[in-house]
Structure formats: structure tokens, C-alpha cells
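ok so i was messing around last nite and threw this chain in just to see what happens. nothing serious, just curious
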Amino acid sequence: MNIEPNWLIEATIDEVQEKLESEEITSKQLVMMYLHRIAKLDKQGPNINSILEVNPDALSIAAALDYERKTKGARGPLHGIPVVIKDNIDTGDNMHTSAGSLVLANSYAKEDAFLVKKLREAGAVILGKANLTEWANFIGENMPSGYSSRGGQVKNPYGDAFDIGGSSSGSAAAVATNLAVVAVGTETSGSILSPASQASLVGIKPTVGLISRNGIIPISHTQDTAGPMARTVRDAAILLNVLQGQDTEDAITGTNPLESIDFTNCLKREGLKGKRIGIARTPYYDYLSQSKLAVMENAIAELKQLGAEVIDPVEIPSTKEQWDMNVLIYEFKNDLNAYLKTVDSSLGIRTLADVIRKNEELGETALKYGQKLFLEAEAASGNLTDPTYLESLVKDAYYSREMGIDAVLKNFQLDAVLFPNNYGAMMPAKAGYPSITVPAGYTEEGEPVGITFTASAYSEPLLIELAYSYEQGTKHRIPPVFADN
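result:
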């Protein structure tokens, strides 16, 4: 076995499956190849620091899946494929689930999250848990993207000078560095789209309801969702097929009309032809440097070349509304307290108040950036009857949907809205609407830039079609280069 063959770099699910089926490699050997790269690139050398914990059972699981493939055949496209999981997603195994915090550093989930059960049923190998911005960046102020008190700082594989984005930073950096085939991240507002854009990846933030939230350390049940992170749109679509599905323990998944859809059927090279794409410039393009703006202008020109009808600019009616974080502040206490009931009682962590107290006991090691958001959430009522919460909940829904995404789509007869990187992530996040980001190129300095397509609820088939057409028509992604790659 070649411990690091050239084909492993940027290997897709289909390419890996072809080698597994032809017996050129085994899944166990594949896991060993990725463990070798983790040792070489994540824990020394460039020290990307994306993997918080390696699954001690990964090789055994892979060996069992190899035997099953030989005796019964493969279960599907994820059979034997190594996947990295963000460390705020429960795995009922010999790995911890900590959200990157020291408070939960010794916490073992009692069972798999619903989406992890689906991955295991599909034959995926859970390779490890990814580092992240601690508590999905909902603890203190000015915490750097990709930093956790348990795991330290995740680096951008394209250069230390570039932000890695948050909070699914480790998931993004691991896939970009080719430490796994694909990864799962989570998003409340920009936490998949941001690191995917910063790491030249495809990231899908699904409609809230497409993927069960059961077993994910929460921030907000209104906005939280998991989603795929991959190097290609096809790989992201394959992963999304497995992650989605109705869960009786998560009522919102009962609204999913797409469960019978195979998202790989949405991969159409001519998908942009005739589609009306709106360019929401204000205020999002104001945030761009000249170098990033040049990449975006080139991307818009590419959309036109690929047959899209570009409407530039379009205005979202609610853009100038004054938004607040009340929904997150109030829901966090309620939702986290419910989650902590599932944590081992011997840890003495049953409520947000317990987490705050334990952080204070740990001191600077746990509170380098404070816990201002925790304190604000603890001060909120937590029973979700407070008028402040209810008014913000209704306002967020109205201005993000009827006067937001839905309005701009209707007013300009658009198929989708285009944003730079993750700068438009907040509005679809508040709406619970889907977005997909895809690599658009690099600045003169080498920093990745992504474009993000957004549309209304359960428009994933359309968004995948658009992203795939753009990806295939441009092929912008280039893997990061290290001194000894």
C-alpha cells in the first residue's frame, strides 16, 4: 500500500468507490492514508489543527465494512467513506462531544445524533470529530473563527494570514486539506457558508427541516441545521442524500417534501441557462476588498457566459431593517438546558447556569474571550413567553421571508439571489431558507472567495443545479499547497 498515493489528493466519493470496488484499496487502508495525512499536516508541519479527536474505532469499523462489501456488497455510495463530524454533533461511541469547550471535554454522548445514525446506516466511517469555534461561536465576544478552548486555533490551509471562517472551521479545513473525503458542519447563521467559502469548498446550508437537529448541541431551534461540506457539488449532494430525512423526534422534519429526491439528479451542466439570478449588492458588496470585489465581478461575468440572465442590482426590501439577536439569546438557554438533560449527570452540568459556573471555576483557560453571550442568555427568561422574544421571532420571520428573500424573488422574477462569500447568510438563516456556496476563485494574495446562491424554502434541488453548473463551467477549486504535500 502506498501510504499517500497521488490520487488521494482531491479524491471524490465516486473515485474512491471505484478503487474500493476494484479492490485496488480497502476502506481500512483508506482510513490509514487519511490518518497519515492528519499526522503529517494537521498535527505537525503546517499544523492545520482541524481534527479535535480521531475515532479510535475507525480502523475496526472500516475493516468490518470491507468484509461486508466482500460478502454482501456495498450499501451505497458512502460505504467505507471516511467522514469528519463537527464536535457539536453527538456520536454515541468512544469519542467525546464537547462543542470545543473544556466544560464538556469529558462528555460522551449516550447515543448518536439522528444524522450520525443515518451515516452509519449508509456505511460511512466516522473518522473523527472536527475542531470548531467554541460553542459554535455563541459564548463570548471577539472570539477568532476556529478557536476553541479545548482544541486551540484552526488554521486556514490556504495561508495563516487568512481567516478560516466559523464556526464549522475544522470541518472545512479538514476537507480542504484532504484529511477526509467529506465532512458535516452545522449552521445557525453563516457557520457552514463562511468556512466553506474561506476554504474553497462547497457548503450546503439546508432548509431548517431537511436534516434532523436531534443530537446537535443547539443555539436556536429556529435557525439551527447541519449540512454537508465537500470539495465538489456532487459529493455534497451525495452526502445530503444521506443526511436528510424525517425524524419523529424532530417535528420540523415532517415538513420536508424532498425526502424521496435523489439530489444527484439535480447535477445539470446546463443548469444556469435561462435562470434569472439577482445580484444583491447593497450592503453586501460594500464589505469586500478590491481584490475580492474583482473575483466577484468575474464570477458575475461567468454566470452570464454560462447562460444565466443576471439582474444587477436587485434590492431586498428589508435590507435596512434593524435586526437583533433576541431569538438566539432566548432560545439558547431553553434549547441548551434541554440538551444538557442528556449529558452524563456525573459531570454536574445540567443547565446553562452550570456551564457558566464551571467556566468561571476553570478561569482563563476556558474564558479567554469571556462568556458575555452566555450571561445574556442566562438572564433571559428561557421559557419563550417573553414579549421581547415573541416580537423578535415574528419580526425575523416576516422581514427575512415575506419582506426579504421571498419578496426579492417575486419582485424581480428571480430563480435565486447571489451573495459574496457568506455576507448574505443572516437573512436566509433567520428565514430558515437554504443556501449553497461554491468556489469562485482567489484574490491576488491567494485567499479563497466563494459565491453563494440563496432561494426559498426547500429549493435545494434548484440551488444544487445552479452551483453544479457554475462549478463545472469554471472549475475554480485548487487544493492548498504545503511544503511537503
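not much to say yet. The chain has a mean pLDDT of 97.
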